Amino acid sequence: MKGNAGLSEHLPQAVRPPGTLPRLLPAGAGASPASLAGHLARYGPPPAGLGQRQRESLIAEVARAGLTGRGGAGYPTARKLGAVAAGRAPVVLANGTEGEPASAKDKVLMTRSPQLVLDGAVLAAEMVGARQAVIVVHPAARRIIDDAVAERARARFDQVRIRVCTASERFVAGQASAVVHWIEQGVPAPTASPPRVSERGLRGAPTLVQNVETLAHLALIARYGAAWFRALGTPAEPGSMLVTVLGAVREPVCAEIAAGTPVGQVLDLADGRSAPLQALLLGGYFGDWVSATVAMDRPFSAAGLADLGAGTGAGVIAALPAGACGLKETARVVRYLAGESAGQCGPCRFGLDAIAGQVERLAYGRSADPGLLHRWLGQVDGRGGCAHPAGVIRLIRSSLRIFDAELRQHAMGWCCGTASVLPVPQRRTR
Amino acid sequence: MTAGTSQDTVRLRVDFIACDGRGLCAEALPELVTLDDWGFPIISDRTVPPWLLADAREIVRACPKLALRLDRGQPALRADGPGAW
Question: What's the complex ipTM?
Answer without folding.
Answer: 0.85
